[in-house]
Amino acid sequence: MRHSSEIVRTDATTIAKMVSSQETQAREVLEAFLERISRYNDALRAFVYVDTEGARTRASEIDREIKRGTTYRMAGVPIAVKDVISVKGLPLTCGSKILRGYVPPYDATVIARLRKAGCVIVGMTNTDEFAMGSSTENSAYGPSINPWMQSRVPGGSSGGSAVAVAAGMAAIGLGSDTGGSVRLPASFVGVYGLKPSYGAVSRFGLVAFSNSIEQIGIFARSIGDLKLTYSVISGADPLDGTTLTFDWNLTTEEGTKVNAFRAGKVIEMSGEGVEPPVLEALDRTVQTLKRYSIQIENVNIPHLENCLAAYYLIAMSEASSNLARFDGVRYGNRVKTEGNWNEEYSRVRALFGSEVKRRVILGAHALSSGFFSMYYDKAARFRTLIKSEFESAFRNYDLLIGPTSPSPAFRLGERTLDPVQMYLSDVDTVPMNLTGVPALSVPTGFANAEGGLLPVATQLIAPYGREDTIFSIASLLEKAGVSAPKVVNPWGNIL
Ligand code: GLN
Fold it and tell me: Which ligand 1 atom minimizes the distance to the CA of 312?
């Protein structure tokens, strides 16, 4: 039995061990996290729905099953789920008015796998509407708040799950990363955020935004937790034809092979416009890796800066097509009118917020016959080019590194009036979505800001399908104390 503040600081791996050995009950673990939620969720708005009773029932069931001899890999681990991933029986709104009241009749594959592993789903977390944004300010529920500083955004679009993990309201969070929506908020609140390789994790049950580039990703406070969760949710799924299973083994002894590694520091990510504390954290990472005899050199990805334009074209085009299903007939709330079908359809579509409307219109324009070759086709061809630039870098290096974001968390309201400023927040994350390679945001330091500290992060990027490399390097940084995620109380008090 432990004190509840100790439980919420404990990592998922340890929670699972304690619950499995009956040293602690899943129910007791859950109550500690629920208590944090009831204390802090009004201020932080991490969760948009908390399934208190459902979670209690499930936790008690796990305790009973364990007594009967059932074994689980993640026994009693409380999970926060981004409001774009289907959980059977819990409301799914994608942070939008259009889906209010929708309750999915099935579990996403990741949820089914986590349940089977003994996890407890705590609730649904805040997101920018349909995962479109970098701050959660596009959510119909209002923004989540950064637990380090009340005046700052937590990053987006998976800001709610990031805050839940940083503030000790869940041990693990799930998000989706189409252009950086797991890594950016992870860097803004000081936790780990992984975007797996494209196809590593099933997207079945994830509401599609831009399906050729997005993946479900993980928020965690330790590399052990990240590996455990990744090993549970990843792997081929018959319900998602893009998935596959990689053949490396996560249990391989760590640190045995990294000494011969070569890493490339991406010049285009660490130049002008990057704030000094971010560069200092990157440098600290480089120095630490050198101490482990990892060779580090500068590397060029010549067209990196064009990724943002290509990303927004591809993402908007796919979104305009994916979001056609929210028409009040197939999905979305029906708006009854006396008028004709066109009027009814327009009223339904008017339920979308302004960022979603902007993207549907621009995406439809980019795909229209007169403009297709000028926009979408060009962006698609650019994707092939940037892929080949990454491939040639990975011929010389086992790993690439750079910042996750050029700056720490920005102020609420600072970028809402200028969509381009908001889009620029993703400059360092979108290339990995276009190329499909895995990337992890590692909290590597803090920036002194007016009124306190704000986390900054470094990104570890591996060749396609080599999450094992990322985990090995990140473990070194964790052991060396370069990254040590903390549970934080509002505003910035480390628990
Ligand atoms: N911020 C990016 C966008 O607005 C990324 C979103 C995401 O990864 N879901 O499109």
Answer: 10
Whether residue 250 is predicted with pLDDT greater than 90 in this model: the reply is no
Q: Whose CA is nearest to atom 4 of ligand 1?
A: 133
When divided into structural domains, the chain yields a total of: 1
Residue 354 lies inside a defined structural domain of this protein = no
CA of 336 to the centre of ligand 1 (A): 32
Residue 36 lies in a domain: yes
Q: How far is the CA of 151 from the centre of ligand 1 (A)?
A: 22
Residue 181 among the catalytic residues: yes
Ligand 1 binding residues, C-beta < 6 A:
131-134, 157, 176-181, 209, 315, 426
Kindly report, residue by residue over 1-13, the tens digit of the pLDDT.
568 899 999 999 9
pLDDT digits (tens, 9 = 90+) for 57-109: 999 999 999 999 999 999 999 999 999 999 999 999 999 999 999 999 999 99
Q: The domain that contains 408 carries what CATH number?
A: 3.90.1300.10
Catalytic residue among 96, 158, 181, 425: 181
pLDDT per position as a tens digit, 307-333: 999 999 999 999 999 999 999 999 988
The verdict on residue 341 lying in a domain is: no
- Expressed as residue numbers, the domain containing 182 is 1-304+400-495
d(CA 300, CA 298): 7
- Residues 446-469 pLDDT 10s: 999 988 999 999 999 999 999 999
Residue with tokens 């992870």: 186
**DSSP for residue 260:** G
In a domain, 388, yes or no: no
Q: Which of 157, 202, 222, 405 is catalytic?
A: 157
Q: Where are the beta strands (DSSP E) in 251-302?
A: 262-266, 295-299
Q: How far is Cα 399 from Cα 265, in angstroms, rounded to an integer?
A: 9
How big, in percent rounded to 5, are the helix, strand and coil portions of the chain? 40, 15, 45
- Exposure string of 414-423, with b = 16+ CB inside 10 Å and e = fewer, is bbbeeeeebb
The DSSP code for 248 is S
Least confident range of 24-38, 159-173, 277-291, 340-354? 340-354
CB distance 81 to 125 below 8 Å: yes
Mutation choice for ligand 1 from 85, 96, 126, 128, CB with most ligand atoms inside 8 A? 128
